[in-house]
Amino acid sequence: MEVLKVSSRSNPNSVAGALAGVVRQMGSVEVQVIGAGALNQAIKAVAIARGYVAPSGIDLVCIPTFADVEIQGEGRTAIRLSIENRVRSSGRVGTPGETVPVDLSRLHA
Q: Among residues of the chain, what percentage have pLDDT more than 70?
């Protein structure tokens, strides 16, 4: 799977274009970040990319996980965002491993 590395200096629009392109071509992509600033840019890019691919019927979702990485001989904890198309359902209860959309529009903060 393609892994894009995003830093706090990454341009969210550029990252969004790369995300959209890889998802269209490969079906999914992973984004790796280290630090709050990089995560902020990556999340903005995902939000922008959702708008880029929505007209094609792609509904992007983001699944975060932790990853241990080594940078210049030092162990660090990164966050990996798995970006993929949400599996659409007919409103039925899903099978294990299936993503079932939930309507959150009625919840109040």
A: 79
Rounded Cα gap, residues 63 and 41, in angstroms: 16
User: pLDDT tens-digit profile of 52-100?
Assistant: 999 999 999 999 999 999 999 999 999 999 999 986 544 444 444 555 5
Q: List domains and CATH numbers for the chain.
A: 3-85 (3.30.110.20)
The conformation of residue 91, written as its DSSP 8-state character, comes to S
Residue 109 scores a pLDDT above 80:
no
Burial of 43 (0-12, 13-18, 19+ CB in 10 A): middle
- Alpha-carbon distance of 58 to 21, in angstroms, equals 12
CA angle, 16 as apex, 13 and 20 as ends, to 5°?
145
Give how far Cα 94 sits from Cα of 89, 97, 99, 101, Å. Answer: 8, 8, 7, 9
Across the strands, what pairs with 17? none
